[in-house]
């Protein structure tokens, strides 16, 4: 299983959509107003984007947040597959909001 897949092998939507459009991490980061490390960590399930950043990332690939983050996403803590809204409720902490959120 690659790092961009969920435990069930379902590709992460952001990465899949980015690659389908031939976009680099840098392209999506520039469009979303964040850095490429943030995009990478979100794609890998190591970071949860704020609702605002999730909206900007979805717009960067021409989709709605639910289209991008509504699919199952791999959770780095091992809690299983969750929709984006459930993932945020489960993992959000006030200190997650950073300068590029």
Annotated CATH architecture: Orthogonal Bundle
- State the end-to-end CA separation: 29 Å
Task: Tell me what portion of residues adopts beta-strand conformation.
Answer: under 5%
Oligomer: single chain
Report the mean per-residue pLDDT as an integer.
75
Rg result: 12 Å
CATH topology: 434 Repressor (Amino-terminal Domain)
Low-confidence stretches: 1-11
Helical content stands at 40-55%
Give structural notes:
- The chain has 101 residues and is mainly alpha-helical.
- It has a single domain (13-93), classed as 434 Repressor (Amino-terminal Domain) (Orthogonal Bundle).
- 47% of the residues lie in helices and 0% in strands.
- It is built from 6 helices and no strands.
- It has helices at 13-20, 25-32, 36-43, 51-60, 65-69, 84-91.
- Helix 2 crosses helix 3 (36-43) and helix 2 crosses helix 4.
- It starts with 12 loop residues before the first helix and ends in a 10-residue tail after the last helix.
């Amino acid at each position: 299983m690659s790092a961009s897949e969920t435990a069930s092998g379902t590709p992460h939507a952001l990465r899949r959509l980015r690659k389908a459009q031939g976009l680099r991490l840098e392209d999506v980061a520039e469009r979303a107003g964040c850095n490429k490390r943030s995009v990478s960590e979100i794609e890998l399930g190591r970071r949860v984007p704020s609702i605002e950043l999730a909206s900007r990332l979805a717009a960067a690939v021409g989709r709605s947040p639910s289209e991008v983050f509504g699919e199952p996403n791999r959770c780095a803590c091992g809690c299983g597959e969750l929709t984006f809204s459930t993932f945020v409720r489960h993992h959000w902490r006030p200190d997650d909001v950073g300068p590029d959120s």
